[in-house]
Specification:
With 199 residues, the protein is an all-alpha fold. 56% of the residues lie in helices and 0% in strands.
């Protein structure tokens, strides 16, 4: 438990004990509630609890939270299951994703987790989910290497000699109407007068 939570709990516990002490001194519950700035119902609950369980009933109780659905032993077993590979569990391809790991946990342990919790669990186990690499089926690695080493170098060399700039634009980025801005026209005219070739 963090220090701030402990201090908050201790303060609330002291307030409950103070309410009980004021009740023993003969104060009315309404006056205790006003003095401690709490509801009359809260004071009533504290007094009733002290009568049933004694002063220990007013002590702070630690909040344990929800019990884990996978034991530590089951968590340690999970990587062993994953080492068999995704295809061993009927998935296509050898890639593990959070959704696939979630299904394996459900199959092996009968526990259903949210996908984001599976990601935290994998991080705790020092596993990272793998993302499939999406590539075109027609991809030709030899042609790509040829283009990079020879054609691309030739294109950049030619562009430098001709004082041109290579620009890669998606066809959806073209605007078919001519731009008629005074700044653009002046820039084109200055470039033309300086001896740069027309685009």
């Amino acid at each position: 438990m963090s220090k701030s939570k402990t201090q908050s709990t201790n303060w609330k516990e002291r307030r409950r004990f103070h309410a009980l002490e004021l009740k023993r001194q003969g104060w009315k519950q309404v006056d205790i509630a006003t003095a401690l700035e709490v509801s009359k119902g809260a004071v009533s609950q504290w007094v009733t609890m002290a009568k049933k369980e004694g002063i220990e009933g007013l002590a702070s109780q630690p909040h344990l939270g929800r019990p884990p659905e996978l034991s530590q032993e089951e968590k340690r077993m999970l990587p062993d299951y994953l080492w068999h590979g995704a295809e061993a569990y009927g998935f296509r391809g050898a890639v593990w994703t959070c959704a696939r790991v979630r299904k394996v946990i459900e199959m092996e342990f009968g526990v259903s987790f949210h996908r984001s919790h599976v990601a935290r669990l994998l991080k705790e186990l020092k596993w990272t989910p793998q993302q499939p690499i999406e590539r075109a089926a027609q991809r030709n690695e030899v042609e790509i290497a040829h283009w990079r080493k020879e054609i691309w170098l030739e294109m950049t060399k030619k562009a430098r000699l001709e004082r041109r700039i290579l620009v890669f634009v998606d066809e959806s980025g073209f605007y078919l109407l001519p731009a008629a801005s005074p700044n653009l026209c002046a820039a084109w005219r200055n470039a033309h007068l300086a001896g740069f070739p027309d685009p």
